[in-house]
Amino acid sequence: MAKNVSAAPAPRAGVATALERALGLLLIAVVAINIVNATGRYLLSYAFTGADEVMVFVMIYVVMGGAVLSLAQRKHININLLPSYARGRARHALYAIHDLVALGASLFAVYASWLFVARIARLGTTSMTLGIPMIIPHAAILLGFGAMAVVALFVLVRDIRALVADDPTIEEATAQAEMAG
Amino acid sequence: QATMKLASATINDVQHEWQKVFAAELEKRIGDKVKTEIYPASQLGPIPRMAEGVLLGTIEAFTTPTSFMTNVDPRFQAFDVPGLFKSPQDIHNAVHDPEYRAYMETMFLDKGLRVIGALYNSPTVVFTMKPVTKLEEMKGLKIRTFASPMQVKPMELLGAAPLPLALTEVIPALQNGGLDGLLVGMPILTSFKYYDIGKNITDLRFAEIVSVTVVNEDWYQSQPEDVQKAISEAGRAAEEAVYPWGIANVEKTYKVWTDNGGVVNQLSAEEQAKMEKDFADLSATLVAADPSVKVEYDKLKALVDAKAAK
Amino acid sequence: MIGTLAILPIGLLFLGTPVFLVFLAAAALTLFFVLPMPSVAMHQVLFGGLDNYALLAVPFFIFAGELMGTSGIAARLINWVLALTGRIPGSLGVATVGASAVIGAISGASVAAVAALGKTLYPKLESSGYGKERSAGLLASAGAIDIVIPPSIAMILYGLAAEQSIPRLFVAGVLPGLLMALLMALFIVGVAIWLKLPKADRFDPALAWTTTKDAVWALLMPVMVLGGIYNGWFSPTEAGGFACLYAMIVARYVYHSMTWSQIVRAAANSAMLSAQILIIVATAGLVTWLLTTQGVPQAIVGWMQSLDMNAFTFLLVVNIVLLVIGCFLDPTSAILVLAPLLVPIAVAVGVDPIHFGIVMTVNLAIGMFTPPFGLNIFVAQSVTGLPAHALYRGVLPFVVVQLIALMIITYVPALSLMFGETF
Ligand code: NA
Ligand code: NA
Where exactly are the transmembrane stretches of this chain (chain C) (predicted)? Predict the structure, then answer.
């Protein structure tokens, strides 16, 4: 995959790095829970019941958060045959298509997820072990796709402007990033 | 033509059998007005997702042990209280009592679920890597249970360490000693050939598993009246037809178990009585924890005892 | 439905749309325009795809791999292997296959193995003259061995869906897994000889000693992780977490090669890559779910049944069908859906169900790296930065090698069944 960084100005890249580090800290927390749980079980025959649930629910947030950040930075895994050969306006047009798909699909996912989350909130179901309200893990999907829709709209506008202007600075920035990646 | 997806987590067991008979009974009544599709073996997702699916209407019907529905509605716990049902007949008597049956079918309507089937599944036994013939030997064993207090608390009472492990982790954990045993329905042990891992079960017989089939009430209400009636009737008819099949199936699994070198351990009569008494006390505290469960449990208990007395 | 679930996705994939968006869009259009199915199904199935304990192995092993790469643990292990085996042509390539088999014995997370080994071994393979495409192809395909060598999540799911003994499946997977590794190793040695890759001209005991000393802590890592699993200290999934802990301690306090800030940075990279992989797993599950509820796998199996085959042709047809399916679906959902449908036919034509489970598992393992869709390809793409078509070229020779292994495994049932008598 091409490690394209968007031509984002420095402050925006700083925010992305901070958010990525937050996801990293969550992953370390999950590793820590895993170790405490397994050690407690083996050495003390004491199971911290519900550790599984906490780890999985946190990871769902990490996945959705990471997916949002990857969308913003064009880091998602794709079959990059065509984009790697496309130059100039053709590449901007391809990017605009990707953004459009992202926007449409995310909006539908938000709609489907909203229907689900609203009902699960009314029904008040809880998790099997810890009795955590299931709206908490489920909301990760709604929030994640909500954020993806916002990000998609933002990059769509940016890429369409680049397409119209045929802006060579954006072209250069992406090409350089690709060389580096 | 409406489609009715019937999902369950297991295959070729009494739940699957009920779904097949139900489909045939339904067709007998209304022909092809409803097309039934049976998805066994978690083909439509793991148990919590199937439970949510029937709540939300992505799956029309879900057949499952009651213990997997307690997070949808705690009142399902009432069926799992240790010592409530002492035999398959107790279950059969209760769910076919006309008055209780009518009540049970509609008791979860506030959650958008209608019960269309309730049947005896199997006894719960303890599978262990080392033989357990005395309660003392349960102490310190790591036993896989469901996350339900109805399984966790009895194991804690015996001094074992209950672990609600993911199903995919169970067999590797048994093989490497990370787990010493599991609480499990008897047919599961033979269908997954647990005799290749260990040879011992202890037949505590402290609970009989009840399976229910719930349908999404919105979907049910969207059907014409004759279809609704046929679904309810087919559910009851399937239960009657499958009940002897289920009992024979459980007997067969005990035989398969011993034919493959498995051993069925029993507690001494004295210890069995002591355990049952301790569990009875525990049950009282467990049901008291949730007034809505207690109401349902008391109602069931009175019914079971009255029928057993006859 | 063919339009929304096949033609449109292939078009979007070709245009370079992110893979998860292709699946998501296909499912959205199908739910919106084609099927009388509540839209909430999308959320429910996506969530179900992620709410899966076994998937924790993916971030764990990716993080462990990232730590090993950044801290120098991996480099010391590579130097040690090369010091001991440098005279054998293709030793680094063989070491890659061997490392994959070891990770296979720890876990069944194929993508995590590709990510972990990719980060640590790809630069070295490339600089040793194996070529970018071939190195990436080797990494993507070696990961598939993990699914066949026990413990294997695919086999556990087969056991559950087809009601077969999981311990027997595990035992049956050992030789086929080793055969796959052996054929790949032979192929790599052949390539190294053909390319005349440089090798050490003599065994240097002094070098062997210093690299061994250097690698002691690194060598203890697989020992600890494997030992922990086989002593029952932790489960295969949990082992990933312990691998992270071990690597963190060695990196921070033994080698002093990473600061806490760098460790958090490594965790952040791992979280991002895990997210990019797992969002594909979840959305692929969504498409599989739609196909299943529309009866597509059932129709394929029905067609196979109508052919009225003997065991030999049945296995051949199964292999072809599964390889095609494996080009598009992920192995775990394919097994859950297809095993209950196919096993009765297999038994009817006289194929042993344990052997059949191994055939299915090997098939779907190969599907992980057959173009166009294969998680291992995507991960190798992401780790190496190579474009997709380079990866496709890179994996092709290994697809051929593993297909030969598959044919042997399919038509020599004894390979899978000879140790089954231990029960
Ligand atoms: Na494995
Ligand atoms: Na593939």
Answer: 6-35, 55-78, 90-117, 138-158, 170-195, 215-233, 239-255, 267-291, 311-329, 334-351, 357-379, 391-414
